[in-house]
Amino acid sequence: MKHLVLSVFVMVAFFATSVLAQQDKSKRPSPPKLTEGTIDGVGIKVDYSAPSAKGRKMIGGIEKYGEVWRTGANEATVFVIDKAAKIEGQTLAAGKYELFSIPGESEWTIIFQKFGAKGQWGAYDYNQKNDALRVKVKAGKPSEFVETFTFVIENGHVVFKWENVQVGFSVTKG
What's the CA gap between 161 and 149, in Å, rounded? Predict the structure, then answer.
């Protein structure tokens, strides 16, 4: 009897995991988004999930100052460049990276981490030894409140905006 109960439990757990794994990501509270563009001949893609503030204090609230953040929601944000580039004047090889950040009130650290075989959920498995590059940038304010986390590529920068915070980093060909 114990074996039967255990077998049923394992089958139910397997089924539930399979269903969740195939769940339509677009129906998540923080749906997936893709921003693409070119700066100085460098092709850029940012694949992220876009949370909404929904009346909550996010930056400096739920997303604490001084703590590593996945720079979006759900899986870690993925940053891809098709050629070597300079990020804030520092060289980053062409490739695929997980993009993390450390929020600050006036200065942020942007982290490009070597992409793992399967990617990672959130920043739970973040390990500084896997960093490919870290740069510091100043935080600013968007022209108006931004309800849903958004990446844009504009004026030679990759910029993300959320609530009353705007952070960007420069990209030039490497």
Answer: 6
Q: Give the pTM.
A: 0.80
Summarised one tens digit per residue, pLDDT across range 36-68 is 999 999 999 999 999 899 998 888 888 889 999
Taking only the tens place, the pLDDT of each residue in 90-122 is 999 999 999 999 999 999 999 999 887 556 655
Instruction: Find all residues with CB under 8 Å of 62, minimum gap 6, and list them.
Output: 56
Instruction: Classify the phi-psi angles of 156: left when phi > 0, otherwise alpha if psi is within -120 to 50, otherwise beta.
Output: left
Alpha helices, DSSP H only, in the chain? 2-21
Residue 26's H or E segment, with its range, is: none
Distance of alpha carbon 148 from alpha carbon 135, whole angstroms: 25
What is residue 123's three-state secondary structure?
coil
Q: How many angstroms separate the CA atoms of 23 and 27, rounded?
A: 8
